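Q: My collaborator sent me two sequences in one message, no labels, and asked for predicted structures for both. Can we handle them in order? The first one she listed is below.
A: Yes, handling them in the order given. First sequence, followed by its structure tokens:
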Amino acid sequence: MLDIITAALSSSITLTFALAIIPAALALLVSLFMGRSKLDPSQADEEYVGGH
């Protein structure tokens, strides 16, 4: 009985960590494909029309 509970918890924990890796890997891939360009704040202010 204890072996069954231990195996179920072990597989559940393994699955949880495996699923947690997916968003981290996707974030890493997206950041690699973004490139090295930087945001120009003066240009960004001109494009924004709404606000205060």
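Q: And the one she listed second?
A: Here it is, processed independently of the first:
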Amino acid sequence: MSSVLNAEPGVSRAPDEEPWLHELTVSEAAEIDKAFATLLASGKSDFAAGEADFPLPRVGPKLRRILRSMEDEPGFALVRGIPVAGKSEDEVRRLYWGLGIYLGVPLIQNNSNSHMVDIRDEGRAGRLRVHSSNQHIGFHIDSTDIVGLLCRRAAAHGGTSLVVSAEAVRREISWVYPDLLPALYEPLPFADVASADEHHPDFFLCPVFGRHEGRTTTRFYLRRILRSQDNPAAPRLTDRQRRAVEAVEEIAARPDLVTAMEFQPGDLQLINNHLVLHGRTRFDSEEADTGRHLLRMWWSVPSSRPLPPEFEAAWGTREPGTLRGAALRWQLHGEFGEFQRRQADEFGVVIPA
């Protein structure tokens, strides 16, 4: 198991020990602060701002290089040292938005039209989503090419982020449970998080694993596979399929496969959801204004991969470099939609017809 346990910047480590860890220098953090001051001085709203309003001549290209590298293993990165200290919640949100200008086309993530979602304990755990609680969250992907989690405050105890290679999980299942692996290539029902009523969710069909152009692609969330059964129209899971998806959760948590990260304030975790599963451990609940607080953004990116044909129903399109994920009906509306279109044009991301 590889882990980041609150290492201080500058602590020596082998160059390949944590290739996914990118620690910002003092000057790079200062560049972000200067860009933030420029954004505030511009008087522009977030949706009207562009790169010129949040200038990052060194950090911007660095973020894009990191993002492009995530199409291959390990498929995730941790950027450490984003300057959040001393900033209010609203200021951190605006700073994060400015960084996101360099990463891709942001997506609306829910029926409430949220483009930046709070991950903190608000005492609420839904049937399909539990990020507004302090509960353990099992291994899953988010419905987007790239998910970013910016840590504003870390938990006093718990809340460890867990990431694991989907290909490593697939390979291990082929050795440990070879009889179950074929079930993971079958179309399985997933409860649709875009459903209007999470107690009677819509569903779509998608396998857990697929292969295309020599690459493994994944779609997994045990909770939503099981919740699909709340819809009587969804195909019934067979005993073999249930055992297979439970095996994914079991294998993904193995200490020799998983990477554990203890977030620090100013950590930005980026994950490619097509090849990495992630989850978290339970954390101690604290007061809302002092407890663990992450901010989540989703992006479509030009470097995204083509998907296997059987994944199209889950993503809306399997074509690479397209606006996809979440729910297309949530996207491209109003001022935010205009910003999405400008970003798509800037990055060369295709908007499906």
